[in-house]
Write a structure and sequence with these properties.
By secondary structure, the chain is mainly α. The chain contains seven helices and no strands. It is globular and about 70 Å long.
Length: about 170
């Protein structure tokens, strides 16, 4: 009798293992499929432009050239991608010491990220809007935006610190 009982336990454990394995396989397949479903290589090119810009400040104009080549596709992408494009373009302009001639695009980007962005994106948008006001000679608005950016920076730093504490707690 004990042999038969052990055999049943082993068989039942094997079935549970196979069930879990199938679930994991389905989950990974689904995630891989969703992860590869980009409408185009737009995000990849934007990541490349951002990386080039971050690697060396002298490369800001190179990033602008990459982003300029993407302009004809702007009507084919999502609003989130357009806002990211505009944010990266403004970032490249600022790093390339190219003066802003208007605040309208950055106002739109900032409003979008205030509703949909992370603290880092909000901080960057407010900082760049402040830079636009600086270039337009509106010091009070520039200072207000830069103060907002500092507030988002503080929130961003506290969330990073909180995540670091959590990861240390659970993964060490």
């Amino acid at each position: 009798m004990p042999f038969h009982h052990n055999y049943l336990l082993l068989h039942e454990t094997k079935q549970k293992y196979m069930h879990i394995r199938k679930l994991l396989l389905c989950t990974f397949t689904l995630l891989a499929t969703l992860g590869c479903n980009q409408p185009n290589g737009f995000d990849r090119v934007m990541n490349q432009a951002d990386s080039i810009m971050e690697a060396d400040l002298d490369n800001a104009k190179k990033s602008l050239m990459i982003l300029d080549k993407m302009k004809p596709q702007l009507s084919e992408i999502s609003k989130a991608q357009r806002m990211r494009y505009n944010l990266l373009y403004a970032k490249a302009m600022n790093k390339g010491y190219i003066s802003f001639t208007s605040d309208s695009t950055m106002k739109e980007v900032t409003a979008y990220y205030d509703s949909h962005g992370s603290n880092y994106e909000k901080m960057t948008a407010h900082y760049l809007l402040g830079c636009a006001y600086r270039d337009l000679g509106d010091a009070p608005q520039a200072l207000a935006c830069l103060n907002d950016a500092l507030d988002y920076l503080a929130q961003f730093k506290s969330s990073v610190e909180r995540n670091a504490r959590l990861s240390t707690k659970y993964f060490t």
